[in-house]
Amino acid sequence: MILPGQAAFAQATSPNTPTANPTAPAQIDAMPTTPSPTPEPAEPAPPEAAATTNGDADIVVTGIRASLASSAKIKRESVLIVDSVSAEDVGKLPDVSIADSLARLPGVTAQRLEGRDQRLSIRGLGPDFSTTLLNGREQVTVGDNRGVEYDQYPSEFFRNVNVYKSADASLIAAGISGTVDLRMLRPLEQSGRIFAINARGQMNGIDNLNPDSSRYGYRASATYVDKFLDNTLGIAIGVSATQAPSQNERYNAWGYAGSGTAASPFVLGGAKPYVQSNELKRYGAVGTVEWAPSDNFHSTFDALYSHFEETQLLRGIEFPLGFSDPAQSGLTVADGFATATTFTNVFAVQRNDYNQRKAENLSLGWNNDLKLTDSIHFNVDASWSRATRTDFLLETNTGTGFGKSGVADRVTVTKNGNGTYKIVPTLDYTNTNTFKLTDPQGWGNNGTTAVVQAGFLNQPSFKDDLKSLRASLNGEFEGSIVKGWEAGANYSRREKTSAYKSYFLCPKGAGTGCTVTSGTPTSLAVPADALLGKNVALDYLGIPAMLTYDPLAVYANALTPAFDNRPSALVRDNRVIENVYTGYAKLNIDGELGGKALKGALGVQVIRSDQRSVGQIASVVNSVVTIAPADQTEKYTDILPSGTMSVELIDGGYVKLGASQTMVRPRLDQERVTQDVSINLPNIGRTPAGLFPVFSSTGGNVALRPYKSINMDISTEKYFDGGGYVALSGYFKRLTDFVDPNNTYAFDFTSLLGALTPAQRATVLAAGQNIGNVSAPANTGRGEVLGVEATLSLPFKKLTSALDGFGMFASGNYTDSTIKFANSPEPITLPGLSKWTGSGTVYFEKWGFQARANYRYRSSFLAEVAGLSATPTYRTAKAEGILDAQIGYEFQEGVLRGFSILAQAKNLTDRPFVTYQNNDPRQVIDYQRYGRDYYIGLTYKF
Fold this sequence. Notes:
five-stranded mixed β-sheet, 37-stranded mixed β-sheet, mainly beta, 56% strand, membrane, 5 helices, 52 strands, disordered N terminus
């Protein structure tokens, strides 16, 4: 379905013109009678085409109401269960972002990161269980794994986005939860030459929290579409530029000491509060060339390029409290929590950090369709998707002295009603005579000896490359309910390279490797020219101000790097290569059965997978690091059947059924071969070897198989005369081969025997102790997902003509799941699963005016967040409700015709993102407040 406020495209295709099959973009339907599982929307009809008569006056129906009419048509004619969002017009922003729009669809929810909707969950299953396509082709990602971060795609470039919730044999790389297909504009489907310009300003409701940041941003785009050579050659070109700020009052707790009783209440173990200012800069371009010189040949070339840079400024103070050694006094206790505590002998770590992320995404696709006979088409599709990303993650520390040797602080901590804590120190944290560049807690250690860690630098880089080639034939049968057939093959090669560099940063001066024993200075004054002159306030936590300087200037002029060669750092580099061969065939059904209209498809996929990982294993013995290469390959075959059916039982009333087996590959970091090895020398020669291992390790598992799911889907839909519909859908998924991230398996560590003496090696081999245990993921889990969705699209003119122009769109979803691992009888919570989700939109559109308000809700869920050293970790996120609104006007007549203005507001509820631990909402870990965002935009199309 298409969301309110996002006008649909009404395709004008002659009966003899082939139309693209959206579930298999490399295909062209042989005949218009061959049913397409999901009819493709096309360009907007001109206003006069949408005119209806009310009495003696013509009323132009465009925008929201036209989108709902097209939405009902797409859903009604689809065999698959699919929902969609579409642009209001060529080059016109459908929403603040693609993810914002998708999060309003039934059963689709978004997780906010840095204040933006980035990761999607479909039907209770997180981002790892869906796949993302661009024009039907699988896409790489700039993220650490497979899940696509949707803010890498400028939303201006897409005419619509489809979310397939059931499977079809021609849908390559379908997900378990669903498949998101981003669709670019097709120039030959447009009515003529189009030039559209958009410009929008943005302001965050929170003033800039850091003095070297801004709360203002912009977004601009331009689109040009034209046709040549008697409408046989079409081009579409788009460019986009974005500078989007965000502010974040960010509170983080280490956790809670104690047991939650009156005698041992929960005491704040430590806190790491920051103020964070982000700025996202993104520049993008797209181009499409479409050529159809005759009815027998059609060729389309697509290109998309996106470059973005995100800069984060983070300033805050890390307080080691209940988990460390400060003395506690003055406790007041309520409900098992220390609501007020005074800590003395506190040595806080003051942080001025700078993070920058640069990424580029390039996607190319070339599709060629040749009509061999009146009923058979041959199609070839080639594509290349490539993403690169580099991070610069800089931490700098100041304190009163090295290793708790400076002036201690006295801190009063008071529990707030929202689960955070007010932290009031005694020291003046802006005093440059007291606070120096140093390692206040003495945390620095290179694995063998202490280092002065006045800062730390992480510089990971990622490259994701996917090439694909697809060929297929499709045609039709005569005189049978089985109307058409399709068969094809697809080859894809994906290679993801992850490379990491990290450095300890210490004060400049004597010493080597930042080690304490070599004479490295333990502290250094902050350079005066690095100070910004205005100190950051942490008053939302009770801290009046903190020392504020330019971390890049300090890094360049006051700190010395020392390479981090700990085994855990060295083994992170890896490559994962996947060669996948897919063959498929299906039959299309279109006819009558028992006097009822019947459409559907039966098909099967056969998938041969060849996955490989290259990396290294590393260990440390007697302060000597040993590295050995690692290379492993795994091959396997899967067979995935599927079937869909749609029956019109009553006029405008449909029952749609789907049954399929689908799969989705595990996280790429779980497929890595790398190992971080621990060698226990005292166990050498002890028996039995299984009880006294010499080698143990943590790492990945190249032999991981995909998650699999047997899916059953049913949808009942009733469409109203004059517009609107009601739909009720149910789904059941039987999950197998679910990946347990904490499993163990046996591994041969012979390649690391070089770390031992000759005598030790001989003893280990004689005792069979070269075999050890690896803690790594494995396919030991299984479970079930059961859910129901309801949708109502209702134009209020069906209730009374007095409400013409008003309407609503509402959806709700309930999902329940049970997942168990072989080594644990206790069920787990699925990442990204909210049992209850819902969205409601009310709108008005008439006489060029448009107004809309949308509220979306999701219950608590397991969220993936950044943990220690940016490692992904999971915590329970609290329920949240987000209110967005917009109002606009489009000039209908005169010289301003084609000109429109739009005002938008996002997160009007100012809802924070909150996580907690141990299934106890009182034990808040993260509390991030992003504030409201306001936008005003102008569009001109001619």
